[in-house]
Amino acid sequence: MFMTQLESAVAGVVTKEMKVVAEKERMDEEVLRSLVAAGKVVIPCNKQHTSISPEGIGKRLRTKVNVNLGTSKDVTDYDSEIEKVNRAIRLGAESIMDLSTHGDTRIFRRKLIETSPVMIGTVPIYDSVIHHQKDLGELTAQDFLDTIRLHAQDGVDFITIHSGITRKTIDQIKNHKRLLNIVSRGGSLVFAWMSMTGHENPFYEYFDEILKICKEYDVTLSLGDACRPGCLADATDVCQIEELVRLGELAKRAKQYGVQAMIEGPGHVPLHQIQMNMEIQESLCDGAPFYVLGPLVTDIAPGYDHITAAIGGAVAGMYGASFLCYVTPAEHLALPNADDVKDGIMAFKIAAHAADIARGIPNARDIDDTMAKARQVLDWEAQYACALDPERARSIRESRAPEEDHGETCSMCGKFCAVRSMNKALQEEYIDIL
């Protein structure tokens, strides 16, 4: 009989996926199994996704990075999106979320799942309008459930559902007077659907039905934060925290049913509130993995929000976030192009690595120490080999090489290079400058 990763872990079974993750993380298989059984680690791995190389998300594991991609009504170029996907995977992204909102989304989704070795996530509410060819207010609760089943059958490893807001949230949003209301795209659609139909949130009301679908295919739930703050002024307010309480309750229900779950988090958060946000989530959600968008630590950097968000991501990771959703320079402005995707990934790979070092993940700093040794002997090839982006590092140095370069220095210092001077001084050699 088929068992989910969570059911297997609870039963004391180490699955082949757990073995792969344990080897990648240099972790004892039994330790990993116990973390999965406790709901503190998830291994998103739909049984239909046969091309996947499994990854774990959660406690004591490396911080993972997700990349959002997909078409929109204004930019529908499947070849371009597939190239972005391939580039993201080459650059080290562990997950791709297909957020397509236009065109034949199923063809693109199936292509991703057929060929991708990384986790694939989706937000089924986006696809409900497209798949059923109905406007939002005409969709029924059953339509939403059917779309979730379709995504599960296609092989999606995790889905985001905004199940934490209810009819009560409508009054909260109206009365609390947020500066930016709801900025979650999926959350705003659920809010609008409830407002137009007068019905309860179907992702909350029919949560048990969703659990049955997820259990059948071993789809991991990413419990979406519809009320995540979209600006610093709305951070850590009553709407955000009240929803987080409910998400924690739903995560426990999922765990009891044998379905893996993680919690999505903010948003825009001032730097000094990030640690508190991580600790609140840890307490309210019983240690379930935390999946954060950024968080962005200021609101005034359009065009540079990959930096704004990577700063927050590094701090969030240091204090316990397990999964970072990248942000690109195009955030708040446009659909990201290939260069934006690369900039976003690199910013967040740096943030994730910095967080791993801060958390003391075993062997996380090994590559940094190797880089330091290469720099100490001015071994440029070894430095490139350690770099997160070797091509860019090589290109910058070689495009601005010093006039008298014998492989020792760069054009910043030339013969004033501190490393060169110290090496020569310690070896009692003459140090020529002029």
UniProtKB/TrEMBL annotation:
This protein's pathway: Cofactor biosynthesis; thiamine diphosphate biosynthesis
Enzyme Commission designation: 4.1.99.17
Function: Catalyzes the synthesis of the hydroxymethylpyrimidine phosphate (HMP-P) moiety of thiamine from aminoimidazole ribotide (AIR) in a radical S-adenosyl-L-methionine (SAM)-dependent reaction.
Pfam families on file: ThiC_Rad_SAM
Catalytic activity: 5-amino-1-(5-phospho-beta-D-ribosyl)imidazole + S-adenosyl-L-methionine = 4-amino-2-methyl-5-(phosphooxymethyl)pyrimidine + CO + 5'-deoxyadenosine + formate + L-methionine + 3 H(+)
Cofactor requirement: [4Fe-4S] cluster
Listed name of the protein: Phosphomethylpyrimidine synthase
PANTHER family hit by this protein: PHOSPHOMETHYLPYRIMIDINE SYNTHASE, CHLOROPLASTIC (PTHR30557:SF1), THIAMINE BIOSYNTHESIS PROTEIN THIC (PTHR30557)
Keyword annotations of the record: 4Fe-4S, Iron, Iron-sulfur, Lyase, Metal-binding, S-adenosyl-L-methionine, Thiamine biosynthesis, Zinc
Residues where substrate binds: 68, 97, 126, 162, 184-186, 225-228, 264, 291
Class of the enzyme per the UniProt entry, highest EC level: lyase
Residues bound to Zn(2+): 268, 332
A single MF term (Gene Ontology): phosphomethylpyrimidine synthase activity
Keyword 4Fe-4S: yes
Residue sites binding [4Fe-4S] cluster per the record: 410, 413, 417
Lineage, highest ranks first: Bacteria, Bacillati, Bacillota, Negativicutes, Veillonellales
UniProt cofactor note: Binds 1 [4Fe-4S] cluster per subunit. The cluster is coordinated with 3 cysteines and an exchangeable S-adenosyl-L-methionine.
Recorded family membership: Belongs to the ThiC family.
